[in-house]
Amino acid sequence: MQMIKLFPVSEVPADSRKVVEVGGKKVIVIHTQGQFFVVENSCPHMNLPLEKGKISDDCTIICPFHRSEFDLKTGHPQAWTPWPPVIGKALGSLAKEKSLRVYTSEIRDGELWVSSEPKK
Ligand code: FES
Predict the structure, then answer these.
(1) Domains in the chain, ordered, with CATH?
(2) Taking phi first (over 0 means left), then psi (-120 to 50 degrees means alpha), and beta for anything else, what does residue 45 get?
C-alpha cells in the first residue's frame, strides 16, 4: 500500500474537515477528538456527498440525507437510513447495507499522510 503526503496537519485544525482528492476519489479529512480520519466523500447508500455530515463525539459521521451513520475508523454502519421515518426504511432497502470506505492515515513530522487506496 502506497502512502501519499497530503499537507501539514495544521491545515485541518481541531473540529474541522477538508475535502481533497486521493487516487482520483474525493475524500474528507476529519480532525476530531484529537485524531485524524480520512473517509470517502460518498455515502454508500446513494453515493451522495458526506462532507456536510454531522460528526459525533463517538467518532461517527451521520449522512445529511437519510442519516445513515458510519464509524470513522472502520467505516461500519451504526445506522442505515433511519430518516425520514417510514420512508427512510423503504429508501434503505434500495441499496444493501454497506460500509463507508476509510483510508489509513498517519502523521509524520507534522505532515498528514494517507493511503492511496481505501482499506479492504
Ligand atoms: S445518501 Fe446517505 S443515507 Fe442516503
Answers:
(1) 3-115 (2.102.10.10)
(2) alpha
Which run of H or E residues covers position 20? strand 16-22
Per-residue model confidence as pLDDT tens digits over 3-51: 999 999 999 999 999 999 998 999 999 999 999 999 999 999 999 999 9
User: Which is the closest atom of ligand 1 to the Cα of 68?
Assistant: 3
Which three cell numbers mark 29? 479529512
Q: Is 95 in the pocket of ligand 1 (CB under 6 A)?
A: no
Return d(Cα 26, Cα 113) in angstroms, integer: 15
Read off the pTM.
Answer: 0.94
* Span 81-107, average pLDDT: 90
Residue 66 CB–ligand 1 contact under 6 Å:
yes
